[in-house]
Amino acid sequence: MAVTSITFAFDENADIETNLGRFETHLSTLDDIAGAALAVHFAALRSENVDQPGVWNALAEALEPKEASIDDSAAPPANPSPASPLPHATSAAVPIASGWLLEGVSIEGFRGVNNQGNPLELRFFADRINSISAQNGVGKSSIYDAIRYAISGRLPWLEDLPAGERGADYYVNRFNKSGRAIIKLRLVEESSGQKCEITVTLDAVGSRTTSAPAPWNADDILRSLDREFVLLDGPTFQDFITAKPLDRGRTFAGLLGLSEYSRFRQALAGLSNTRAFNNHFETTLHAQKKAHELKSGQDASEAFHRDYVILTGEEWKSMASEVALDNCHKALSQIAIIASHCDGKEFAGIDIDACIEAVKAAEGGPKRERLSACIRERKELAQVNLEAPHIDRAEALVERAQIREDAAGKTAGQVMLQLFQAGAKALELPEWSASDLCPLCDTKVPHNLQAHVSAKLANFTTLDEATRSLAVEWSAAGWTDLVGLEAKLETTVANRLIAKLGPKAQRGMISVDEAKGLVEWLKQLRQRAGECDQLLQEEQTGLEKELPQSAVEVTKKIEAGRRLQESLSKWTSARDALEVEKTWEQKTKRLKTFLDRAHSDFSAAETAISKARLTAVEPVFQKNYADLAFFGVTPAVSKKTSGEDLHIHLAEFHGLTDLSPQAILSESFRNAFAISLYLAAASLYGGMPKFLILDDITSSLDAGHQYFLVELLRTKFARPGNPAGLQVILLSHDTMLEKLFNRHVSTGSWWHQRLEGAPQVAVLPQAGAVNKVKDHTLSMLLAGQVESAKEGVRQYLEYRLSDLISKLRIPVPIDLAFNENKQLAGDFLNAIEAAVKLHKAANTLVLEPAQEAGLNSNMATIVGNYLSHWGTGQALAFSAPALQGVMAAIDAFCDCFTFVPASGTAPKYYKSLSQRL
C-alpha cells in the first residue's frame, strides 16, 4: 500500500494504550500489512528490550508475497467443532485503580536494615506530610533504597559499581543470618480506599519474587509506580542540570508521563536508521546481485539471437519465446540423421550428445569428431570471453575507484566521524550562539563553523556512496563473469587477478592502482583469447575443407542447438533470479519507506504532546522557583520541534536575558531549578503513583531556603495543604529541619518519625523506639554482649536527654542546635546543668531538694562511668554490670524532673525548671 500524507497526532488527555491504538490505526493507512506486523511488537518497543533484528525479520516476512491458498470452504472439516463451545473459566476481574497512596512500609534484612525477626515498620498518612529523620549511618537511605528496589527491582548506583566490588552482594544486610530481604509496601487505592500489600522478597543468590493478595497483580502495580518523580534525591537534581540535552529530554519525558513514548520513539529511530537497516538487509550485496543477473540475462539473450541465425538460417527479429523455440525445434528435426531424437520432445529436452553420436555413426571419422570439438571449444571460449566489460566500461572502474579514493582522502576514519558528529550537536545547542567559535579550542575561525562541520560530515556520506557505486559497477559491468575466461587462459592460480581482487571489489574497496591493474589484465586476457580462437579457427577451416560440406553444416547446426539450450537455461535462470531481486528490492524499499514515515509521524506526535505538557508545566515551574529561590530570576525550558533534546536556560536574570543556569547559578539554586521543575511536572502529570519520596534534597540549601522548600511543600504542593496534591514523604538527617518537623506535628498536618539503631542490629522508629532500644540493650548486657550494647546505651542516653530538654524548654547554645555530631550527650548534660544552676541562683528552681541531690548523684554515674570513657575512646573499659548501672542512672536522672499530680496518678514532667504545671 502506498504511503499517504495523513497528519497524525496524539490525544493529550489519553493514556498511552489509547494513543498507541490511534497510532496502530494510522500505521494501517501507511501500509496495512507492515502496520499490522509492527503493532505486534508494540509492547517490546515500549520497553527497553527491543530485539531489533527480530522486528526487521518479522516485518520483512509479513511483506513476503503469499501464495494463493486452496479454497476448502466447501469441504467439511475433519473434526467439526460443537455448535456451542463450552464456556471458559474466567479469573476474577482485577479492580480498576486510579492512583496509589503509600500507607506504610515494612523492611527486614535489606541494606542497612537488619531487624531480623523484628521488621522495621513505618506508618504514613495520606492526608499529612510525612517525614523521617535520622542521624547518618542509622538507615534512612536504606529505607529510600528499599522502596526503590521494591518498585523497580534494582538500585542503579549499586549495580554500577566495578564488577570486582560485587555490588549485587550488598542488597541483603550482611549481618542478617537468614540471608534474605523482605520488603512490604502497604498501598491504598486513592478513590476506593481498597488496600493492597505487596511483598517483595530477595534471597542470597539474587532471586527476586513479588506477591500481592488476589485479585491484585503485584508486578502490574509496581510497573505503574515506576515513574521518574516518585523517588527523588539530591543527585537526581544535580544530574538533571548537568546532563546532556538528549538525556535530560528523555528524563523529562518520564516526568511528564511520556517515558514509554520516549522509549518507543528511540526504538523506531533504531528501526529506521538507514545504515543499520542497510547492513541488516545487505542492500549493497543485493544491488550487486541484481546488476549481475540483469547482465547475465542480457548476455544470454544476445548469444541466443546469434545462434538462432546459425541454426535456422533466418535473421533474428522480435518474437515470442515460444515461437523462437518452436522454430529452433523445426530446424533440428529437419535434419534426417537426428530427426528421431527430436520427435515428441520440446526443444530444451533434445539430447544434443545423442544427436552428435548419431552423426558420428552415419558419417564417422576422427576428423569430423575433431571438427565438432573445434566448434565446441570456440563457442565455449566465446561464452566465457564475454564482450562486457568493453574497454571504455572497464575504464569506468578506474574512475569510480578514483572517486572513492578522493572521497576517502577528505575523511580520516571513524574517530573523526564521531568528532564531527559531536561537534555538530554542540553547535546546535542554544547556548552556542557564536557560529565562528570552535568548541574544541575556543578559537575563532574565519568561516561559518556549522557549515564547515556539515561539509565534513557530508564527506563521510559521499565516501559511503562512492564505495557502494564502485561495488555496483564491478557487478553491473560483468567483471565477475570473466572469472571463467581467466581460469581457462591462466593455469597459475596466483596470477588470476580478477579472482584475487573480486571479493575486495565486491565490497567497493579496491584502490585506483588495483583498478588500473585489472584494466591491463583484461586487455591481456582479450589478446590471449583472440590468439586461442585464431588457432582453433584455422584448425576448423582446414577440417571443413577436408570433410564433406554436409557433415560440416550438420555439426555446426547441432552445436548451435547445444548453445541455444545453454543460453535458454542461463536466460531463464537469470530471469528468475532477477525477478527475486526485484521483488526483494520492492519489499525492502516498501519497508524502509514505511519505517521512515512511522518514525517521523510518531516523533512529530510525541514532540507535540511533550511541548503541550511542557507549556502547561512551565508557569507552575516558574511559580515554584519564585517561591523557593528568589525574585528577579525567571527559569525556562524549551524543546526543539524535532528531536528529544530538552534545553534549560534563564529567560531573565536581574535584567539580563537568555543565560545558562549551569554557568551562572550556584549549586543550591541549580538544584532549586530542578526541584521546582520536578514538582511542577509531578503535580500535573503524576499518573498512578500519588506519593512522592524525597531523600536528603535540602543538603545544598541554606537554612532560609530549606524553610522555603518545606513551606512550598506544605502549603501548595502536598496534601493536605493541596487536597489534590501528592502524598509527600521526606527523609532527612538535618537536625534543624527535624525541629521544624516536630513543630508542625502539633498542627495535625504533619507526621514525623525518628529512626534509632544501627545496621548491625536493628533500626527502630521513634514511636516506642526508646523503649525498644532500652529493652534490646539490656537484653544484650544480660547476655554479656558489651560491644554491641554500648551503642544502644549512647542512643538511649541521647534520646532521653534530648526529650528532657524539649519538655522542660531548656535553652541550648545555638551551635548545639545545628550540631550533627553523634556524641551529643555531654553537651546535653552541660546545658541541663547550666539551666538548673541558673534557676537555683535566681531562686526559681521548681525541683525539690531530694531531686537536686538525685541529679548530682546520677549525673556523676553517667559522666564518671560512661561519658568520660566514651569521649576518650576507652570503650574496652566498659563492663556489662557497669553499663546496666548507667542505664538505671539515666532513668533516675530523668525521673528527677517529674512530679506526681495526685495520689495514684502517673508522674508528669515539670512544665519548666521554674513551673510545676
UniProtKB/TrEMBL annotation:
It comes from the Bacteria. This is AAA family ATPase. Residues 105-202 form the Rad50/SbcC-type AAA domain. It comes from Neorhizobium phenanthreniclasticum. InterPro entries: P-loop_NTPase, Rad50/SbcC_AAA. SUPFAM superfamilies: P-loop containing nucleoside triphosphate hydrolases. Residues 68-89 are annotated as: Disordered.
